[in-house]
Structures are given as C-alpha cells and as structure tokens.
Amino acid sequence: MVGRIYHIGLTVFDLDRSIAFYRDILGLKFQGEIFMEDEETDKMFRKENCKARVAYLNGSKALEAPPIELIQFVDSKIHKEQSDLFTTSISEVCFYTDDIDSVYKTLIENHVECLSEPQYFDFRADGFGESRAFYFRDPDGIILEMMQPL
C-alpha cells in the first residue's frame, strides 16, 4: 500500500538561509521553490490564511533518494524548540557520503555544530555492516546525520 518516501519535510525559520546551508555547505542541488496559499493550503496545514514558501533540494537523481523539503511559513509565528535525539519525533535525517572526513572538515570550517567527530560502528553481526557516522545541526538546530558505509 505505501511506496517509497516521496520527500522529507523540515520546517525552517529562514528559507533563504536554509537553502544556502543545504546547497552551499552540504552540496545538495536546488530543485525549485513553490508558494502555497488558498483554501487547500489552509485545510492541509489546518491554519486559516496559511502561506508557505517551500523549497526542494536533493543530493541524488536516484528514485530511492527523496528530496529534502524546506518549509517556511509566511506571517506565522514559528515555535522554535531545541531538537534532541531523546524526544519522540523525527530524531534526525541521515545523509550518505563517500568521504566522511572531508564532509566533517567542511562543516567544521563553516562553523557548523557537530555533536561528535565521525565514529566507527560495526554491526556486521546484526547483518548491517560497518559504517562511520556523526550528528550535526542545521541553522535551525535540526539534527542531521552524516554516514559513510564501509
């Protein structure tokens, strides 16, 4: 009944700042932006006079790789709370890389908050293989993960 993931939506405070982060620092390709308003938008978001700028970015053209959807609500107060890994919600969005050390260095050089250095994990006994990974935050404090399968 349910197919692949179509996109992963993140509510952001400043769409232009977030586009710059995901495009210029993480290297995702900007796919485009839409503006949502009118009755359908009000019903979907369950908010009267709702307006939203929505941008899509992706790091792959593969069908299995869903884009990141960045949503900035216009003229609406955003409740900004610090995300953490121990609250029921989407805890993080994980990105794939072939060179985790290079990505980590780029993030540090761009003053991106990294929660640790890349860590090694061995889950071969569980059938998942080996990888290196670390968590970091986007400009709104949303937790992201970078992973390099080995």
Automatic annotation (TrEMBL):
Superkingdom field: Bacteria
PROSITE patterns: GLYOXALASE_I_1, VOC
UniProt key word Lyase: yes
GO terms for MF: lactoylglutathione lyase activity; metal ion binding; methylmalonyl-CoA epimerase activity
GO BP field: L-methylmalonyl-CoA metabolic process
InterPro entries registered for this protein in UniProt: Glyas_Bleomycin-R_OHBP_Dase, Glyas_Fos-R_dOase_dom, Glyoxalase_1_CS, MMCE/EMCE_epimerase, VOC_core
Keyword match Cytoplasm: no
Keywords, in A-Z order: Lyase, Metal-binding
Coiled coil: none
Residue ranges constituting the VOC domain according to the UniProt record: 4-149
PANTHER family named among the record's database cross-references: METHYLMALONYL-COA EPIMERASE, METHYLMALONYL-COA EPIMERASE, MITOCHONDRIAL
Protein name, per record: Putative lyase
Taxonomic placement: Bacteria, Bacillati, Bacillota, Clostridia, Lachnospirales
